[in-house]
Amino acid sequence: MTPRVPFPFTPFTRRDWIKLTGAAALTPGLGAAASPGPTAFYRPIDYTKAKAIPTICFGCTTQCGVLGWVEDGRVRRISGNPLDPNSRGRICAKANGVIDLTYYPERILHPLRRTGPRGSGQWERITWDEALDEIAARMRKLKEEDRAHHLAVQVGRDKTQGLMQRFLHAFGSPQQLNRRAICSSNPRVANMSYFGESVDWDTGDYEQSKLILNFGANPMEAHQGGMGALQRIQKARCDKGARLVTFEVRPSATASVSDEFFPVRAGTDGAIAMAMAHVIVKNQLHDADFWDRWCNMPFADIEKHLEPFTPAFAEAESGVPAADIERLAIEFAKAAPHCLTLINRGITKHYNGAHAGRAARLLDILVGNIGRPGGFTMTTRSAWKGGWGQDGLPETEFPSPAPPAPPAWLPGTTMFAELPESVQARVKAFPKSWQEKYFGELYTPSEYPLSWQWQVMRVGQLVYPYLKEGRAKLDTYISYTFNSAYNYPEASLAREVLLDETLLPFHIAIDVVMSETSALADIILPEAAAFERWDPQVTNAYDLIPFTAIRQPLHPPLGEARSVLRIFRDLARRVGHGMDAYFAFEEEEEFYKGWFKNLPITWEEFKRRGIWYDEKRSKDYELHEQPVPESELAGAAFDEKTGIYSVEKKGKASAIGVKLADGSVVRGFPSRSRKVEVMQDLFVQGAKYAGLPADDPCGNPLPTYFKVPSHVDMKEDEFHWVTFKWNAHTQSRSNYSKRLAEIIHTNPIWMHPDAGKKLGVKSGDTIEVTVKRPKGNTYRAGEEKPVGTIRHKVLLRRGMHPRVLACSHHCGHTQMGIVGNPDRPEGPVPGIEGMDPALLTDRDLPNNLWWARKRGGPGNGMAINDTFPIDPTPLIGTQNWFDCVATVKKVTPV
Q1: Which residues pair with 270 in a beta bridge?
Q2: What pLDDT, in 10s, does the model give residues 52-82?
Q3: Which of 136, 6, 143, 192 is nearest to 572 (CA)?
Q4: Helix or strand run (H / E) with residue 709
Q5: Which among 131, 157, 165 has a CA at the least distance from the CA of 562?
Q6: Which of 337, 342, 474, 760 is the most exposed place for a label (fewest CB within 10 A)?
Q7: Has domain 710-891 been given CATH number 3.40.640.10?
Q8: What is the mean pLDDT of residues 538-546?
Q9: CB–CB of 436/410 below 8 Å?
Q10: Distances (CA, A) of 735 to 108, 576, 857
C-alpha cells in the first residue's frame, strides 16, 4: 500500500539549483531561512503544453485567486489570477507551497481504521464502504436513541459556505464547533458591537488613506486579507505619501516597514487609543455632524467618559511617549476622512481585547471617516444572500432545500436535563430570547453569552475541558482538517481527552495528512487537497465592489481521496432518516453550477475567469446614507419609538432602513438600532447573566481600557510570553510543505538584547520559560501550578519590547510526515503501514531536509502551545494568547 505520486516527473532539488546558479553553499545558522527559488523543486514548464486553470489558493484564509499551470495532469506552477480584484494577480510563498501539500508522498490516500490502542499508530487500510457503513451505523443509533446532539463536527478552516451546518442540522444536532475564539472573535466583536453582525472584519479603503494607525495587525506578513491590504497600503505610501504607524510588541514585518514603530507593553494598546480619543475630543477635532446624526448617545457623555484617559496615563501604561500620542491623534483627526485604524490580534487577543478594539475603532467614529474614501469602509459582502445596503452579489444557495435548525436547549427538554445544575440555573436566568439561542455548553457556552449574540463564534478551546469535567457529552466526534492536539492552548489537555474513549467514544478525522489530531482518531477519511476540490468563495472586497470566485479542481483527487461534500453526501444517504433529501445531487460540478445559477455569465465563462463582479457598479461608500426607495417603504412597518422600517421575511421582522431626525429615511447600519452603537448595552446584559461582579470592566457599555489582570503587579523578573505567525505558514496546515518548511523550520524565542544581558544569555543559548496561570474571571485562574515549561534556544532581537518573549507556533511537530518531523526515527512512517521513506518518489525527501538535526541543522523547532493556558476573555471567550506571564532562566542544553 505504498502511496506513489501517479504522475511521472523529474524533481529539481535545492542541490541542483545551487549547482546550476553557482551559488555558495548555504550555512544554516540559528533559525536559518533560505529558499532556492520558485522553480527549484520542479522541472521547467512547457507552456506550449501547459493549461492555466483558475482556482482559489488555500494556503491561508486570504483566498487569493490563482492560476494553476497543469502539464501532463500535474500542477507545475501557481501564479496569480490578474482578474482577482483583491490580490490583483499577486501571490505569496504559500501558494506554490500548496503544490507540495498536494503531492506529498505521505498524504493519506485511503480510509484507515485503527487496529491498536488509540494513538498507538497501528492502522489498517479499509474500503470507503466499510468506513462509511461503520460511521453511519453509529449515527443511526444516536438518531434512534434521541441523542442526535451527541454528534459534533469541529472544523479548522471551513470554506464550504454552510455544508457543515447543513449536515448537522439534517441529522438534528447543533454541535458545529469551530476555532474562531482561537483566532478572531475579539476583532470581530470590536466591529460588530458598533455596526452590526454583517461588519465582522476590517475593510479599510487603504489605497485612498493618508494616515493608518496600526494597532497589532500584520498585513505585510500574516493577516486575513493581507495580500489585498498590503498592496493598497504600500501603493498609498509610495504614490501618495501616506504614512503607516504601528504599535506592536515585536519587530514584525509590518512594524519593520512602518514610518513609525512603537514597541508597546503587551495589552496596553487600548490605553493609547483611549488617550488619542481624549485628545481629539479635548481639541474639538471630532466630526460633530457625523456623531449627532449617527451615534446612539449624546456627545457630552463620551466626552466625560474620556476625561481620565490622558496621554500621560497612556504613557505610564504603555511606555509610548505622551507627546507622540497627542501628536498622532491630532494628525489623525486632521487627515480625516482619509485616515483609518487597523486592528487585529495584537490589540485584541487580550483579556481587555474586545474593549481595546472598540477603543481603536472609536477613533474612526470620532473623526467621521466611516464609509468614506480613505476611511474605515464596509461592503455588502453580507449581501451574498441578500442583506443590508445596496444590492450585493446575485443570490446563491444549495440546490436543495435547507433542513430545519435543531430546537434550542430549553428548560424541560431532554438535552437540557443533561446539564449540570449550576449551568441550568444560569440558563434559566437568561431572557427568553437568549434561551432560544442557547444550544448547549459546547456550541454556546453559558458563561460566554456574547460569543453567541453576534454570529455564533463559539469558544472552541473549552470543548475539551468541558468534556473532561462532565459539562457536556459527546459520542461521535468528527474533526475536519483540524489539529487541536497541536495548535490549541494547553494542547496536552486536548490530547488527553482525544485519547480517552470514555469521553470521546468514537473519533472520525477527515484530513489530508497525518496530524497530531488525526493520529488520535478511530477512522481517518482522506480528503481531497485544495487543488482537487470545488468550493464557493466570497470574502471582503478591498476595491469595495463585492465579488465572488470559485475554487475548482486542477485534476481529480489522488488515490481514493474525496471532497468533504461527497463524504457528507454519502454519509447522509447511508444514515437515512430523511437526511438524503438535503443532499440531492450526484456530480459535484453540477452541484456548484446550481449554486451559482443566478450569475449573469455562463457557467463555462465563470470557470474560465474564476472570478465575477459587476465592473460597472459604483464602490460601496457610505452605504448607511443610501435612501430607502419609496417602493420598499410602501409595504413596510414603521416603529415610532425606534424610527426603524421593517418588512417580514421568513416570519420575522427584517429592518430595511431608519428615519433620522431630519426626516430622511436611509439604510443605516446593520445594527439593531441602525445607528452606530457606541453605547452597547449587550456588554451590561452579558456581564449580568454571566455572573460577573457588578463593577467588572468587561461589562462596560462604552469602549474603555483596563489593565489585564495577569499584568497587574508583575514582578521585575517576569516577562510577557506571546506568540506570532510567519508569512510562510498557516497554523499547522502548511508544515509538511518542503519549500515552506525550508523557509521557516525552527522557532527560537525572541528576546530584547538588554533582557538577554541581564540574564547572561546570548543568541544560541538555551533558556527555560515557565508560564503561570492567568488571573481574572477566566478558566482555572489563579492556580499556583504553572501551565507548562519549555526549553529552547534564544534569539536576541532589537525592536522587541524589553519585557516580551515571543515565539512562533508553526514548528515542532511530532506528526506531519518526514517534512513536519525530519528527525523522526528511521523506518516505516508512523501511523501508515508500509509507507517507507526509502520508497518516496520525491528525491528531496528525506535526504535533502538539511535542517534536520541529524544532518547538522537546527531541527524542526519546538511545539510551544502546551505552555499557553486556556484563557477565554470574559463574555466573548476569545483566547488571550498574549496575556501570559512567564519566568525565564538560562539552562544548559540537554
Answers
A1: none
A2: 999 999 888 888 999 999 999 999 999 999 9
A3: 136
A4: none
A5: 131
A6: 760
A7: no
A8: 88
A9: yes
A10: 15, 38, 17
Beta strands 211-215 and 243-248, pairing class: parallel
How many whole angstroms separate alpha carbon 792 and alpha carbon 776?
29
User: What is the distance between the alpha carbons of residues 313 and 707, in angstroms, rounded to a whole number?
Assistant: 12
Could you tell me which residues come within 8 angstroms of residue 256 by beta carbon, excluding any fewer than 6 positions away? 220, 799
800 vs 25: CA distance, rounded Å: 31
Q: Scanning the structure block, which residue is given the C-alpha cell 525552527? A: 746
Contact 830, 513 (CB under 8 A): no
Degrees (nearest 5) of the Cα angle 268, 274, 277?
150
- Tell me, what DSSP letter sits at residue 390? S
* Angle separating helix axes 269-282 and 299-306, nearest 10 degrees: 130
Laid out side by side, the sheet with 74-80 consists of 51-56, 65-71, 74-80
Q: What is the DSSP letter of 790?
A: E
Strands (DSSP E) contained in 383-494 are 476-480
What is residue 24's predicted lDDT score, i.e. its pLDDT?
29
Intervals of CATH 3.40.228.10 along the chain: 185-379
> What's the pLDDT score for residue 28?
31
Domain limits, CATH 2.40.40.20, in the chain? 710-891
Question: CA-based angle 542:546:550, to the nearest 5?
Answer: 100
- State the cell numbers at 369: 471617516
Q: Return the C-alpha cell found at 727.
A: 508569512
- 3-class secondary-structure state, position 151: strand
Reading the block at residue 539, the C-alpha cell is 470574502
Which cell numbers hold the place of 844?
A: 528531496
Cell numbers at 559, concatenated:
488515490
**Burial class of 483 by CB neighbour count within 10 A (0 to 12, 13 to 18, 19+):** buried
User: Which ranges constitute the DSSP H helices of 738-786?
Assistant: 738-743, 753-759
How is residue 650 annotated by DSSP? T
Grid cell listed for 562: 474525496
CB atoms within 10 A of CB 428: 11
Question: In Å, what is the CA distance from 829 to each residue of 1, 226, 287, 482?
Answer: 12, 36, 64, 21
Sheet strands side by side (includes 547-551): 535-538, 547-551, 611-613
Residue 802 burial by Cβ neighbours in a 10 Å radius (0-12, 13-18, 19+): middle
Rg (CA), the chain: 27
Cα–chain center distance at 670:
23
CB within 8 A of 373, min separation 6: which ones?
205, 208, 337, 338, 621
Q: What are the pLDDT digits (tens) for 598-625?
A: 899 999 999 999 999 988 888 989 999 9
For the full predicted model, state whether its pTM sits above 0.70: yes
CB distance 539 to 63 below 8 Å: yes
Checking DSSP bridges between strand 644-649 and strand 151-155, what pairing results, if any?
Answer: unpaired
- 817: cell is 510526515
Which residues lie closer than 8 Å to 108 by C-beta, 6 or more apart? Answer: 511, 512, 513, 514, 518, 524, 526, 561, 832
User: What are the two backbone dihedrals, phi and then psi, of residue 185, each rounded to the nearest 5 degrees?
Assistant: -65, -40
When the candidates are 3.40.228.10, 3.40.1000.10, 3.40.50.1980, 3.30.70.890, the CATH number that belongs to 185-379 is 3.40.228.10
